[in-house]
Amino acid sequence: MLKKFLASLALGVALLGLAGVSHAQAASDAAATVSAPTAAASATAAAAAPAPAEAASTAAPAAAAASAPVPNKGDIAWMLVSTLLVILMAIPGLALFYGGLVRSKNMLSVLMQVFVTFSLITVLWVVYGYSLAFTEGNAFIGGFDRLFLKGVFDPAAGTFAMAATFSKGVVIPEIVFVAFQATFAAITCGLIVGAFAERIKFGAVLLFMTLWFTFSYLPIAHMVWYWMGPDAYTGKDVVDAMNGKAGLIWQWGALDFAGGTVVHINAAVAGLVGAYMLGKRVGYGREAFTPHSLTLTMVGASLLWVGWFGFNAGSALEAGNSAALAFMNTFGATAAAVLAWCAGEALLKGKASMLGAASGAVAGLVAITPAAGNVGIVGGLVIGFVAGFACLWGVSGLKRLLGADDSLDVFGVHGVGGIVGALLTGVFNSRALGGPGLVTDWVSATVGSNGVFDQFLIQAKAVGVTVVWSAVVAAVSFKVVDLVIGLRVTEEEEREGLDISSHGETAYHG
Does the pTM of the predicted model rise above 0.85? Predict the structure, then answer.
């Protein structure tokens, strides 16, 4: 079955390649002058999320080209480092965090699922994902102008297209933004793995990820983060037209600095649907399912925390004030969530655990993601504390209420934490509560604040759309996979462990 999937994937990539060639236009005139839109706010105001890149424009006259913005080497260096940090989050960070939580007989299967999913999504991102997420299309999805990254680099002229940041006249090479956003897409899909660990076919993982990435991640990313960029707002007469070209949720004014909706809620809902549709693990509720190595889980959580500074602070797209604010909030909120989770465990069980501390760190990181550059320092601490307690409930009380075998508590941490962070972003963004506010006029880059309740409702709408969209796409995708190759391994294979039955290897010897 895995061979059939790989053959189908190869055929699909080949067909896309033919389509890209047939629609290709000479990029030599366009690449040097591309203007790329960003996400939802300016870096100085810290008001939203990562930034997209627009389709190639016609060549500018020599005089215009001479005055085109030149990227700052410090910004480029910061974005390259941030991209590396997000890769560190996924491999090895997420892989080791998840791997330590499963039983030893399934260690390699989880490592493989995260590692290969990351690789698969990276390739799909280059082929069509980036284009559908971050080029102009409609309010729900982008277009095909950047298939196979067409126009991003012109080898004949030796020129690179530029992408806007959150400040007028400030750019970075679009290829850097492409790489940065590829890591977001890849780790989002990797997060889902934890919900159905220890019982799913390897081929089913890859086919599901392809479908869900295409029909859930890409549209949500476009709806939340795509807009025309600050330089497009040249006067009040173009504001409505520019706003109308943005993604639906961006048009509403929702704030998501680094992926509370796009990454965490999106992935968590898909994982929960998968946990329901695959059913519970053999022996669930009757046998002990204890983590086989909390040492590896702690190492993984630590790598996640380190890498998350690139995830959040890198989403400023510039090495400036917004990145500094996001960096500090990522630091403080995570530490606050660790303390909150440990305190909650001590109150409930009489002891704080290493697993709890590691889980608390991830909960804080998740919750501060949409808020990182959108709230003040105190707001960040509050979000961390609330997330620590809320996610502890998510993996205990809520999990019992839902009745799903979410193996590694993807929904309890990423779903609950993402929702808490997204909603509280709407509260603590207010300048009256110490937040940086948001850009209220992109022509003049004026910063202000919406009413707390008004922004909270906007955030809630964004959360609701993400939950429903991801759930529907996940349910359909899992059903398609089940019909095509089947979802679960046999009971015998599950009892033997997926390391041996799916990969013919074992993590430990002797």
Answer: yes
